[in-house]
Each structure stands twice: as C-alpha cells, then as structure tokens.
Amino acid sequence: MKPLNGGICAVDGIRAWGVRDGRNGLAIILAEEEGCAAAVYTRNRIIAAPLIVTRRHLETQKGRIKGIVVNSGNANAYTGKRGIEDAERICDLLAERLGCSGSEILVASTGIIGRPLQMDLITEQIEKVLPLLRSESRASERVASAIMTTDTYPKEYAVETDQGLRVGGVAKGSGMIAPDMGTMLAFITTDAKLPPETMHECLKRSVDESFNMIVVDGDTSTNDMAVLISTGERECREETFQEALDTVSIELAKMIARDGEGATKLIEVTTTGAKTRSDAKRVTKTIITSPLVKTAVFGGDPNWGRIIAAAGRSKAEINPERITLQLSDNKKDAVIIENGRAERATDEAASIMKSETVKIHIDLGIGRESATGWGCDLSYDYVRINAEYTT
C-alpha cells in the first residue's frame, strides 16, 4: 500500500471545491456518477440539524447519494425547527443545480453552537463553488481548508493498494475532541464496489480504531460525522478495503490529535497485556484524557505517577505488580516501571518528554489484548483559544 497525493480527489470520479469568507467556509464534494455512502455520527444526546437531515436522507435513499455540502463557522446546532429547515434547504439548493432530489444530498456543519445559519451567505457560496468543481489535488486542498475552524492546517491523506484500490480523505478537528468523535468531520472517498451495508460496517470498525481513539480535551461535540462515499468502480475484497480505510482514518485521526487547540506535542498511548480489548481501550483513553498527564507532557516533566494514577482509575482490571511502563520518542526508550518495580526517572525520560512526539507504552501483563490512541498536550494557549472563541 502506498500513500498518494490528492486526498479525496485521488479517487477517480470525485469532484470537489471549497471557499472561505472570513471564518465562514463552504465545500462541496460530488460523485460524478450516483455514489454510495455510509456515515457514523456523534453519540452526544444533543444532535445538530445537519446530522438529523443526513441520516434521514441516507435512510430514504438506501445509501445512494450524489454528494455532500459542508459549511464551517456555524454548527447549526440547537437551532430547533429552523435549523432542520435550513439544513434541508441547503440540500435542495444544490439538488436544484444538479437536477436531482434534495434527499440525494448530504449536509454537514461545524462551528459555533446555537446560532442560525446565514442562508444568504451559504446560497452565495454554493453558487461560487459549483463552477469551480475539479477532480485534481488542489480541489481536495480547497475542501480541507474550507472546513477548518480552529485548525491550524488542512488535513488530507490518500492511499492506493497493490490491487489499485484507492481511498482518500479530508478531515477537520482541533478542539472539543474526545472519544465518540468529538468536534470533528471526516469525508472519505473510495472507488471500492461494496454494498452500502458492508460500507457502513467497515466505516464503523474504522472509526472505532481511529477517530474514537483520539482525545484533545475530553469534550464530545454535537456535530461529529464521518462520511464514506464510494464511486463503486473497482471490485475488491472487504479485507483489502478495510485495511486501506483504516490506514487513511488513522492518519487523519493522528493529524487531528497533533493539531489540538494550543498543542505543542503529539501523545501516542499504547496499552498491551490487558485482559480484554475493552480494558485496553479504557486505559488508553483515560491516560490520553488526563489533564495531569497532558500538562506534564507540555512541561516536559517525566512525572510517571500521573500515568499510573490515570491507568488505575480507568476501571480496567489491573495488577500493580505486573505493570511495565516505557516512554519513547521514536529515537530512544526509557523503561520507568518493570514488572511492578518503579525505577527512578532518568535524564533520558526527561529528554523524551520534551520531544514533539511522546509515546507511552503501558503493559498490564495480565492478558493479550491491546489498543492504541492519540492525543496532545494541554498548553496555556488552549485556555486562551477557547476563552476567546466567540468573542
């Protein structure tokens, strides 16, 4: 499997473009022929209007769609009946230009919660984007840039398998990020020919291993959505597609974690030796979420007690006498605890904690299950960015 340039447009048959007006962006992604789509949504009990409309359209069309419209700067969340009507109107606006039904269009939004959409601006942006739709790398870049909010850089990735199958994606996300897909959007394209039900199952599995394994601040948003669109041009095995999809999803998830609001470092946590997969995930997520671990990483402080304490409160089965804890930064390793015996934090451990990527490996020593997740440090800038978000 090899990485490709082009993001979502690395897949033949996908046209896209995006624009920005200040903090308000809009992007359109279309499948030239009728596409097949699947989506996974936030688990927040307060669900934004575009998610409600997108779910309804996918059910109505049994996964057969033309494309998706995405706006940034306004979440269209907690906006009541008007929010639903505006989301439907966005779909209708594009459908009218394409000569299809509004239910063949999906919609996504990200931004500030509780404010009605500026429909005049969105209408204007749709008209601006339509004649610019392209099937080239630059189009994917424009989409990735248009959907950003507090992101500091656009996020896109694509791969091609040895059999020629392609998967490409773009994503946004920087703050309000936690397991269960916190304020993030991901749009993934492929030429895999698979039934909608199979695509949905593959997407759910992939999200569980990628976007649901990242944490920036522990908050879960109202608007999280991952959408998979297939042109259906290439026969493939489900296993081959799953591997390619997982690769793209994990790379996008890591970009989101690295670009956490105010972040200066990427944290990767791997838990091994757990009794169950669920326990491995609990330990990994609890360590990544811990403000004390995150601030220690920011300060370059090898305070391993915070890592152990986080693992201990994860509700996973743990035997303190079997734990091994190791820090690394891709160049050097430092074993902090070995089979329950704590070593003194070394200069090497302190050096690792100052690196741009800090890897924490905790082996529980009581089973065979494992899990990996990603997060970032917690800096002064995180507070500043979120204190000033709407002002």
Highest-level CATH class of the largest domain? Alpha Beta
CATH superfamily of the largest domain: L-amino peptidase D-ALA esterase/amidase
Judged by helices, strands and strand pairing, the structural class is alpha+beta
Helix content: 25-40%
Within the CATH hierarchy, at the fold level, what is the topology of the largest domain?
L-amino peptidase D-ALA esterase/amidase
Mean pLDDT: 92
What is the global morphology?
A: globular
Instruction: Tell me what portion of residues adopts beta-strand conformation.
Output: 25-35%
- Characterize the largest beta sheet: strand count, sense, and whether it forms a barrel: 9 strands, mixed
Give the number of domains. Answer: 2
Count of individual helical segments: 11
Q: What is the CATH architecture term of the largest domain?
A: 4-Layer Sandwich
SSE ordering:
EEEHEHEHHEEEHEEHEHHHEEEHEEH
Distance between the termini: 45 Å
User: Gyration radius, to the nearest Å?
Assistant: 21 Å
Q: How many strand elements?
A: 16
- As residue ranges, the low-confidence spans are 176-182
Produce the secondary structure layout.
Layout lengths: L1 E3 L9 E8 L2 E18 L7 H13 L2 E11 L5 H19 L6 E8 L6 H11 L7 H10 L8 E6 L5 E7 L12 E9 L2 H14 L4 E2 L9 E11 L2 H21 L7 E9 L2 H13 L1 H9 L4 H9 L11 E5 L4 E6 L2 E2 L4 H7 L3 E7 L5 E8 L3 H8 L4
Parallel strand pairs: 4-5, 8-10, 9-16, 11-15
Antiparallel strand pairs: 1-6, 2-3, 3-4, 3-10, 6-7, 7-8, 11-16, 12-13, 12-15, 13-14
Helix pairs in contact: 1-2, 2-3, 5-6, 7-9
Describe this structure in words.
- The protein has helices spanning 49-61, 80-98, 119-129, 137-146, 196-209, 238-258, 277-289, 291-299, 304-312, 347-353, 380-387, and strands at residues 2-4, 14-21, 24-41, 64-74, 105-112, 155-160, 166-172, 185-193, 214-215, 225-235, 266-274, 324-328, 333-338, 341-342, 357-363, 369-376.
- With 391 residues, the protein is α+β, with helices and mostly antiparallel strands.
- It folds into two domains: 2-256, L-amino peptidase D-ALA esterase/amidase; 266-387, ArgJ beta chain, C-terminal domain (Ubiquitin-like (UB roll)), CATH 3.10.20.
- Strands 1, 2, 3, 4, 5, 6, 7, 8 and 10 form a nine-stranded mixed sheet that branches.
- Helix 7 (277-289) packs across helix 9 (304-312).
- The longest helix is centred in the middle third of the chain and has 21 residues, at 238-258.
- The termini are far apart.
- Residues 176-182 have low confidence and may be disordered.
